[in-house]
């Protein structure tokens, strides 16, 4: 069976969050080891769903991000410094990756969002506005130094047409202005990955929209009747998600 589904960026964020909250790798890290959720817009949705799945209460994601690109209508949004740490099922707040990182070890996991997604090679790029490499400095130490797992929750609207390493050559050149770009360690987790829990095959068909639907994606899903039904139920649970910022 084949179906088509349309997702706005906000619905995609919620879908990714629900997928992560049912991912056994994520839940095992939170229950048996340490799970760190770095501040970010998509990660705010992930924090809501993961804390709910673990029975750790509600979460206010209104300021749970660092640097963001935003329009005039989102001028009221401001970030609150702080990441989330769940250690052996216990929620710990008020800490940031800078001071958490030295404690992380194999078996632990970090969720870190991204700004660019090269689907072909499943590469994630992160815009760098900090002269000291931002959060990737500490994430890289944990990932490369101690094999801490890294997953990048990122929507399909952030896909790019060239490898991140090629984009880095342009963005990071000495004669270029603006922010920098870096290749993030770990693996991306998109709407497609979230739907895979239902067993369906997912392909990107087209994208775009107007009047708040900019950045939306049209996906094709294929599977058995039961798999399609499960996917449709999951999609139904995220439909109507408010545009980011309007519900905060």
Sum this structure up briefly.
The chain has eight helices and twelve strands.
Observed structural traits:
alpha/beta; 12 strands; single chain; 8 helices; six-stranded mixed sheet; 23% strand; Rossmann fold
End-to-end CA span: 38 Å
What's the CATH architecture name?
Answer: 3-Layer(aba) Sandwich
pLDDT under 50 segments (min length 5)?
none
Note the total helix count.
8
Oligomer designation: single chain
Structural notes for this entry:
- It is a single chain.
- By secondary structure, this protein is α/β, with parallel strands linked by helices.
- The chain has helices at residues 9-21, 24-32, 41-53, 97-100, 136-146, 164-171, 191-195, 225-236; strands at 2-7, 34-37, 83-87, 90-95, 109-111, 116-118, 123-128, 149-153, 180-183, 187-189, 201-207, 217-222.
- Helix 1 packs parallel to helix 3 (41-53).
- It has one domain: Rossmann fold, CATH 3.40.50.
- The strands form 3 sheets. It has a 6-stranded mixed β-sheet, sandwiched between helices. A 3-stranded antiparallel β-sheet has the order 1-12-11. Strands 6-7-9 form a 3-stranded antiparallel β-sheet, covered by helices on one side.
- The protein is globular and about 50 Å long.
- The mean pLDDT is 92.
Secondary structure: elements and pairs:
Elements: E1 2-7, H1 9-21, H2 24-32, E2 34-37, H3 41-53, E3 83-87, E4 90-95, H4 97-100, E5 109-111, E6 116-118, E7 123-128, H5 136-146, E8 149-153, H6 164-171, E9 180-183, E10 187-189, H7 191-195, E11 201-207, E12 217-222, H8 225-236
Parallel strand pairs: 2-5, 5-8, 8-10
Antiparallel strand pairs: 1-12, 2-3, 3-4, 6-7, 7-9, 11-12
